[in-house]
Write a structure and sequence with these properties.
Rossmann fold, 10 strands, 8 helices, 297 residues, alpha/beta
Length: 297
């Protein structure tokens, strides 16, 4: 059974932008879209039997259906369903995210009906969901996914902007590369694969030699990691980029003109609990484009 694309909805501008992005992604993947709202309030006695009383939960449900109706009108070929689930925002989103092909959230949204993205909910959800999670900021449009036209104006008819993914070949990154290559292929977009490295402390006389050696080693490791995926996705135009520096700084910069940034989150269990990782955390706060966080071992 195919998993749906799931988007969280709270009525905010960011969640509406996320819903539009999720609808386009569902169409690209040939999947259905499920719009989910977490209900954390109380239910007025008799409200469920008499929705005409317009209790708070019914009003929230109406906002949810309005979002779905707008998506159905904008994307008539897309199958759109809705779910209003009782529970805390984090619990609901973690539960539905675990069953989704990918979970789409409005990044750092505040307020709105239900208020499901208030505070640190996004970071908690990203730190627990093992399926890919995509964060979309308010104001994002279809034109933002495409290159500007020859006059420098926004366009929906130009090629897609590049997909950027950061990897570390020293750790398993199959899930990360699979998601990035598939995303690029679905958009017929180029893929920019970024590998960062840092120069250790060495004596000044040896710095240049060590710098060249480490840059060459990083390039070889990157090429070896990417080569099998080039064969699986021969139509994807791949650019390998090796940069010195911290990935938390270099990746958002490398994705400055991108349509999607893909970063990894290592799945760890222990006394400290789930976490987003410093690279994903930096991308979530600094990248201008949508950010996909892909969990991996």
């Amino acid at each position: 059974m195919l998993r749906p694309v799931v988007v969280g909805s709270d009525g905010s501008r960011r969640s509406l932008a996320a819903a539009d992005w999720a609808a386009r992604e569902a169409l690209r993947r040939g999947l259905s879209l499920q719009v989910v709202q977490a209900w954390e309030g109380t239910t007025t006695p008799g409200e469920t039997e008499r929705p005409e009383r317009n209790g708070p939960r019914c009003l929230a449900r109406r906002a949810l259906e309005d979002t779905a109706d707008r998506l159905r009108e904008s994307y008539p070929e897309l199958s759109v369903g809705t779910r209003q689930i009782t529970g805390s925002a984090t619990d609901v989103l973690i539960a539905v995210g675990g069953q989704a092909e990918l979970l789409v959230l409005g990044s750092r949204a505040v307020g709105g009906v239900g208020g499901f993205l208030a505070g640190s909910v996004v970071q908690v959800v990203v730190g627990h969901v093992t399926r890919p999670v995509v964060l979309v900021r308010a104001g994002g449009t279809l034109a933002d996914e495409h290159l500007p036209d020859t006059g420098g104006q926004p366009s929906t008819h130009t090629p897609y902007r590049a997909v950027v993914v950061g990897i570390d070949p020293r750790h398993p990154c199959e899930e990360l590369l699979s998601f990035a290559f598939e995303s690029a292929a679905l958009r017929a977009a180029p893929l920019r694969v970024v590998r960062t490295w840092r120069l250790p402390y060495v004596q000044a006389a040896a710095a240049a030699r060590v710098h060249r050696a480490m840059a060459a080693s990083a390039a070889r490791a990157l090429a070896a990691a990417v080569e099998p995926w080039r064969e699986k996705f021969p139509t994807v135009e791949v650019h390998e980029l090796v940069q010195e520096g911290r990935p938390s700084h270099t990746l958002p910069t490398a994705a400055r003109d991108a349509g999607l940034l893909v970063v990894g989150r290592r799945i760890r269990s222990g006394r400290l609990g789930a976490h987003t990782g410093y690279v994903a955390h930096a991308a979530m706060h600094r990248a201008r484009c949508p950010v996909a966080v892909v969990s991996h071992d």
